[in-house]
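testing teh design pipeline on a random one, pls ignore if ur not involved
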């Protein structure tokens, strides 16, 4: 889980009375947002840091991580979404992540990014409200990353691909590094999401 993201997600879940699904292992074990089999699913290097425990993994160990971590997480989400569909409830997918202020020596100027593929109207409404709420915020579209199936599996599989409007909110880690700061961002985002998810 990204720094600060879990606390923001938990607080948003409470403030919005919304269900949150959080990873329970480090993404260095296996990344829940990468489909199994792609290179970034289980990395051997994270930015400039080597991950020795992931070097020369056996096929059996990869499969074990998929079966114990990746598949149960997504199966739980799928079961929840099926139940919402059965009850004819409208569903929005809001993923919460955080990004490092500096990556490979290059500073990232944004405070928050809103990532999307098919959920453009949801993303644009969210960004507009963030900017209106605080004109000093540097809000970017599809920054510091762009959406792809190899990097944003859940957003597409549980969102765009099944007709649920979906966005991923990336907050710079230094802005949510403490519980108080993360709480403040949850309080900032809650009324915005309540307004746009209609």
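output:
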């Amino acid at each position: 889980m990204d720094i600060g993201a879990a606390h923001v997600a938990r607080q948003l879940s409470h403030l919005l009375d919304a269900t949150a699904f959080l990873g329970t292992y480090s993404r260095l074990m296996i990344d829940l947002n990468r489909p199994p089999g792609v290179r970034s699913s289980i990395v051997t290097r994270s930015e400039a840091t080597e991950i020795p425990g992931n070097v020369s993994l056996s096929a059996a160990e990869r499969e074990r991580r998929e079966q114990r971590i990746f598949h149960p997480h997504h199966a739980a989400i799928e079961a929840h979404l099926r139940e919402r569909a059965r009850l004819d409830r409208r569903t929005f997918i809001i993923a919460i992540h955080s990004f490092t202020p500096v990556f490979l020596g290059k500073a990232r100027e944004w405070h928050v990014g809103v990532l999307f593929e098919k959920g453009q109207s949801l993303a644009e409404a969210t960004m507009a409200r963030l900017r209106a709420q605080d004109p000093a915020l540097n809000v970017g579209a599809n920054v510091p990353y762009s959406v792809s199936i190899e990097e944003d599996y859940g957003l597409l599989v549980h969102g765009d691909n099944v007709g649920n409007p979906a966005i991923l909110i990336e907050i710079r880690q230094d802005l949510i590094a403490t519980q108080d700061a993360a709480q403040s961002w949850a309080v900032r985002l809650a009324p915005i999401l309540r307004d746009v998810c209609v």
